[in-house]
Amino acid sequence: MWTFFIALALLIGGYLIYSRVAEKVFVIDGRKTPAMSCPDGVDITPMPKWKSFLIELLNIAGTGPIFGAISGALFGPIVFLWIVFGCLLGGAVHDYFSGMISSRNKGDSIVLLSRFYLGKAMEMLMRIFSVVLLVLVTAVFVVSPSSLMEFLTGGNVRAWIWMVIILAYYLISTLVPIDKVIGKLYPIFGVILIFMAIAVIGGVLFQQGSYPMLELIGNFRDFSAANGDLPWWPFMFTTVACGAVSGFHATQSPMIAKCIKSEKEGRQVFYGAMVAEGVIALIWAAAAMAFFRVNEPEGWSELAKIGGNSMSVQKICSGLLGPVGTVLAVIGVVICPITSGDTALRSCRLILGEIFHLDETKMKNRLLLTLPLFALVVGISIWNFLDAGNFNLLWRWFAWSNQFLAAICLWVSTAYLAKDGKGKWRSLFTGIPAAFMTAVVITYIFGEPRIALGRVVPMHIAVIVGASIGGVIFLIYLYLLIFEVNKHPVIDDQTPLEEEQKS
């Protein structure tokens, strides 16, 4: 129990202290945000800070901080360390800078920002990864809530019917102005999500006799490797993404960057929402470890067999909260993926609009961009339902592409800071986590035994390759920082990105 409360205190304390450090590194000022300088009534719309915070939280809190954290429980209490320090030093910094840099570039997406700060080649790569990731997220976040809703209705309403309803909602929320559906529903959903998390951790705390929490002291080891499964490096860092570090958030923060009314709001909205998601991940990881007793071989095997999915959520909720609590908690879990799936599709529409230079204030252009994406999401969703193995395959590729995007976003933030000649050493603030995540994703793609290269490359070789490439890229960054940055003129981040593109 003490490990959980210490971790919780570190998250809250880290927000109060380290978020202010991030704000000082970024150097906010009094310039106008897109919502105040160029509102368009569709995507760029000023909203109250509390509403921007709740929308950002629900955008990023998909199934990741729940399903990912439950799966992360298989690594044992060491996962608490990743959730706390990954969130504070990496994930929240990642979300804050992706939102704030976007705000200074009229709300442009991570795709255009990567061109501005890392070059045209990186923009092309990011176009592919961002669109693929967002389509996968939208499709993935149809399957899990559909299955849970079938469970809630006792099987009377089949999952495929719920899939149709959810997809219809995705289409509507993607096309209408952000304040018409998302702005009105998300505050209600936010209250339910917070209540659900409180209910789950309350159920654990009041039943310590039956479900004792695991402490880090005495359990400081890799439970997963000890049971013959994948080791903590690098798989803990991809399993628990949302709640620690997640590249998907880089596609969501620019959306809310179009809605904040002042740069001063960024710390609470972007950094704060990520810390709140870290708390959610902490709760579900603690609950899964306690409920399944992963310190015992039988309990670990049971959770490993079920995995972090709707079935494990059902078991935890019914065991801890009983029938009424189960309904409330599962509704909260249903809300999480739905409120990320709709904004994922919206983000994808915005990115394509930037690529094709279409005026998205016009409904016909929004339809032109959305309908092909929607058809693709429908096709993948149907494919998911045909075979459970399809979902598992899709999730593994999603896990890697998600963290790849996180690494690139952190390098974009690093390049942004490095372009300030006088304060270029501030770029280490994002450069260190960028190098870390680079090593993670390289090791993963070489070492994951169920996909591509991992089928033929031994794990120890993958670790060496990942660490080496990550280290070399970091050394190149240091070289450029010391010898090259001051040779180039400082780019004024007040210059609109589209003007730079024309030049």
**CATH superfamily membership, which one?**
Amino acid/polyamine transporter I
Q: Hey, roughly how much beta strand do the residues contain?
A: under 5%
Name the CATH architecture: Up-down Bundle
User: How many angstroms separate the termini?
Assistant: 58 Å
- Given helix and strand content, the structural type is mainly alpha
In CATH terms, what is the fold-level topology?
A: Amino acid/polyamine transporter I
Describe the protein.
The structure is a single chain. With 503 residues, this protein is mainly alpha-helical. It has a single domain (2-395), classed as Amino acid/polyamine transporter I (Up-down Bundle), CATH 1.20.1740.10. 74% of the residues lie in helices and 0% in strands. The protein has helices spanning 2-26, 34-37, 49-60, 64-72, 78-103, 110-118, 120-152, 159-175, 182-205, 223-226, 232-239, 249-257, 266-292, 297-306, 310-356, 363-386, 388-418, 428-447, 459-484, 497-502. The longest helix is centred in the middle third of the chain and has 47 residues, at 310-356. The protein is globular.
Write the layout of secondary structure elements.
Blueprint lengths: L1 H25 L7 H4 L11 H12 L3 H9 L5 H26 L6 H9 L1 H33 L6 H17 L6 H24 L17 H4 L5 H8 L9 H9 L8 H27 L4 H10 L3 H47 L6 H24 L1 H31 L9 H20 L11 H26 L12 H6 L1
